Structure formats: C-alpha cells, structure tokens
What does this fold into?
Amino acid sequence: MIHRLFIANRGEIALRVVRAARALGIESVLAVSAADRESLAAAEADKIVVVGPAPARQSYLNGPGLVHAAKLSGCDALHPGYGFLSERASFAKLCEQEGITFVGPRAETIEAVGDKLAARRLASAAGIPMVTGTGKVSSTEEALAIAAQIGYPVITKASAGGGGRGMRVARSDADLQDSFDRSSQEALEAFGDGTLYLERFVERARHVEVQVMGDGAGEILHFGERDCTLQRRYQKMMEEAPAIALSEATRKRVHQAAVDLLKPLNYRNAGTVEFLFDPDRDEFYFMEVNARIQVEHPVSEMLCGVDLVQLQLRVASEGKLPLKQSDIHFNGHAVELRILAEDPTRDFLPCPGRLAEWQFDLSEPGLRLDSAMHAGALIPPYYDSMIGKLLVHGPDRAAALNKINAALNAARVAGIRSNLHLLRFLSAHPDVLSNDFDTRWAERVLMPQFLQAN
Amino acid sequence: MLTIKPQDVAALVEAFERSSAQDMRIAAGNFELQLSKTATGAQSWARRSSAHEAGSDAVAVAASAPAPSQLAPARSAAPKDGPAAVATERPAVSSEPPAGHVFVRAANLGTFYRSPKPGAPSYVEVGGRVYGDTEVCLIEVMKLFTPLIAGVQGVVREVYVTDGALVEFDQPLFLIEVDA
It folds into this structure.
C-alpha cells in the first residue's frame, strides 16, 4: 500500500496527482523549485519540499536530490508526472534501489522502449507493421542508397529521441543530400547521439495512439485510442477520442497491436503506444512507446469514465488491475485543446508573466479544465509554456467541437499573450469540423490562414 | 531602552512553535513581533508589516510566515506520524537577517550534519568565530557529502537546524553576526 506519495513534477500534472492521491487517502509531498513555492499544487499538497533553485536542471531534473527528499520525507512511492525525469530509466532504478515504489514502468522497460531502434525490434517481434525503414544510418551516401530502395519521400529520425529533432522530409536525392548532416548534427546536440534512421514518409499521415495500463505481470488493458493528428512541428495542439478516421476493424487491430507489443515486456503501469495511420492504405505503423502518463490522458478518461491517475496509484499500490477489459466502455466523443503561454502571431514566442485574468465557465456539463493557473498566478519563464488543457465530452464529435468552441469564446485570459485566439480559430475551422487534415496541416494550412486573419 | 537580540526572537519563536496558540503578538517600544500559524494571520502580518516599515527599526521577523508557500491553507506543520517529522521540523526563520547579520543558507537540498562524522565535535558552535573559508556543516545527498563554507567573517549567533534534518534549498542554516 502507498502511504505517502512524493510528486516530482510541477504545474497541472502535479496538481492532478495531488488530487488523485487525496481521493485515495494517500498523503502527498510535492517537490517544488524556488520559483514554484506559490503554485496551486504547492498550496494543495499536504507538504512541500524546496528541492532547488528555479532552473529545472537543479530542481526537477535533480534525480538524487529528489529521491533523497522523498526518502527523508517518509514517502514510499514517487510519481514522476510527464516530462522531466518520467522516462529516465536511471531515475526509476534509483527509486527502486532506495525502496521507493516508482509509479511507472520498471527501469528496464523504460530502457527497452526508450531506445527507438530497440523499440522497433520489439514491434517487429510482435508482428506489428512499421513504415518501411532502416537500421542505423550513419552517412549521407548510405542514406541515399537506402532511399533509392524504399522510394521517396523519406523522413530522417533521431534514434535517441523525439520532439522533432533530427526529423526532416526529403523528396529527392538533392533534398536528402542537403538535410542529412544537419539532421544528424541536430540529434547530436539534442540527445548526445547523432544516429539517424530512415523511414518511408506517409503523405496524409494521421497520429493515432493507444492508452494502456499494465499490472507488471502480463495483464495489459487498453483504454481505446486517441487521434493527435493536429500538431505543429510535432507539438500536439488538439487531441481527441475516438479516432473517427479508423474503421471499426482497424480500430480493433490497433488496440490489439498495442497490447501485443507490451505484453511480452510484462509492462507495468500507464503507457501509450503511438502509431502513424495511413488512411489511403488503411494501414497503421508503429512509431514509439511513451512509458509514462501523457499530457492528453484526460481525453481517454472522458471517453471511458475512468480516472487514469488514480488507477496508476492503485496499480502501483496493489500490484494488480482493479478492473477488466470488459469493464471499459467507450462513450461519445472527447476533445482536448492545449492552452499555451505563447504568442502564435510571433512564432510562438513564450510569454511568461502574471495572469491578470483566467476565467473559464465550466458550468455546462461535459467541460473540464486541467490547469494549475488562476488570476494573479505568475507563469515563470523556466519551464514548459503549457498553462492548461481545456477538455470537452459530447455525444458525438460535432457536438463536442461545438461545445469547446463556445467555451473558448467565453473564456478570458489576460495579462499574458496566449494561443487562445488560435484555438478559437482552429476549433471552428471547416477542415477540423470535417476531420480533413493530417499531421502537417497546421503548418501548411492553419497557420498561414490564421496569421493572415490576425 | 529595551534591546531585543536575535536570540530573544528565536527563543520567542521556539516557544510559540511549541505552544498550541495560533497567533502571538508582542509589542515593546518600537519593537513589534507577530507570529501566526494560520494563513489569515500571516496575511494580516504582511499588511501590518508594510504599513509599519517606514517608522520602525524592528527586528524583522515574520516567524511562521516567511515563505509564501506557508500562506497555503492546511499546512500548519503539525508533524504527521512517521518519518515525515524529520522533514516538517523546520524552525521558523525570518526571510531577512537582522542588520549586521547574514544567513548561511543551504546551497542544495539534503541532510544536514553539524559535525564531520558521528560523535565528532561540531564544525561550529554558537559564539564561535568563522572566516570566509570556515566549514560550517555537511549536506548529504545520496551518500554524497558536500561541505558548506561560511562565506563571511564573523560570529555564529544561531544554528537553526538540528543534526540529521532534511534541509531545503536556500533554507537559512546559521545566523552570523558579521565583523564590523
């Protein structure tokens, strides 16, 4: 049983975990940096520990300091949230060595799925289709030879990480010649490893991912899929469930693929398997496993009526899943939009500062705001600029989008620049309403139109 | 005229911490001290303190309400059962040292040790003299011990933390009266 939980994160996910713990009668100790002493999560946690100065490297990324604080404050478990150290295998290992239950997968699992090439081998062993791709590619000459085999367009990807670093599309030999070294250099700078691999590029790609939860002993449940196709430079803007671009048969296949991939690993706790879906061939391809709870997990919570963070804590606490696949039902449609302290008219420049207004009318049923913000709150300049997630649940997609657009129009955010205008624009866009977009639509269509209108 | 030394304030704070009282206010001459364990009390202190700032050379001690985090509801620092007591035991210290004094603060989070090894004499005692490079304590993180140096020349007037306690980043550990 978890008695006292250490939370090694900040912002809305820290608040989310504090509340989930409280609902289960678990005490919470929140790690804060010197810049987050006044945060809402700090106010609601049973106790806070100032782990370091504002920069994340010395606070939320200080693994030994965090585990030390967890131990000395009498915690028996640690929730890493997302980002920061959530997928650092060495951190999970340190927790276990010090007798603290890590609320997440085992260290060796994080390691196994964290390396993309290793993850591709796992997917291959589980018989899951992948975009025709390659092993490690280390030179432009090698890349050109491989591209000739698999056919253009191709995309380069970093072996050691994501977030768009090292990713470039090449439509010809000239493109590839031009971009390969730059991509490799980018990957080297971002992840300390310049190794790339090549994949066939899907033109009308959609991003579909499956939410899973494992008991660590081979039992894996899935909570349906999410469609996160609406992205800008590989940063998700809108997430929804279900993915209506999938046929019922393909949907069943993608759920099964996620379960089949993680079952041999005896996967423990929450995870997401990401796929690229090609609507032209009705085929999906494995992309990667995210061994953590994700930002967009509430979409699946609203679809299934399950609290995934509480479930994470129960699985960590009891070592078994308190429900069966047949207990999980999918209802209606859920949509999430990410609210950022960024100015979309100035190339998404981060806009930290003090919030003068932060007003959302959530009185309509089916609306939910996951945020640690309030009027008067200071958004520090040191961290991610996401300040909230607005969620809606409706009987169908049209009703959900209509409701979220109305909620955005009534919302007031002042004191800083945010992407609220852009979210209003996008949630009423005809292409979004007709589900006619791909992973590059935001850059190609949405942003030029938005910038022209503003 | 009544002179209030930092030690006197520390003694009052300690007595208040041990008592079940939620608020305490002491006024003597141009000295005023208000201590509170509640959010409302802390806020009223904040207002009062800014109102009095101009006319008072009081020893600036806001006791239980130095860190904004303590304005939070339901954190009256009543130690819960179990080892959390180690961490909750954080004596109330003002956010600013009195005139002519400086704090030696924790450079990082960790476990505080007053002596180089168990049973050995403390690095420094109250009344002892320190120089810029005098080691005053050890801070341990995962068996990694880092000595902390005084950084100033003067006399140790307070030790705020007990041996073996968890100290947070930037927490005042010692009060040093700086040589004039």
Strands of chain B lie at 23-28, 31-36, 101-105, 110-113, 129-130, 135-141, 144-149, 154-159, 166-167, 172-178. Chain B touches chain A at residues 67-69, 71-75, 80, 82-84, 86-88, 108-111, 140-142, 144, 166, 168-171 (CB under 8 Å). Residues 39-52 of chain B form the longest helix (14 residues). The first strand of chain B starts at residue 23 and ends at 28.
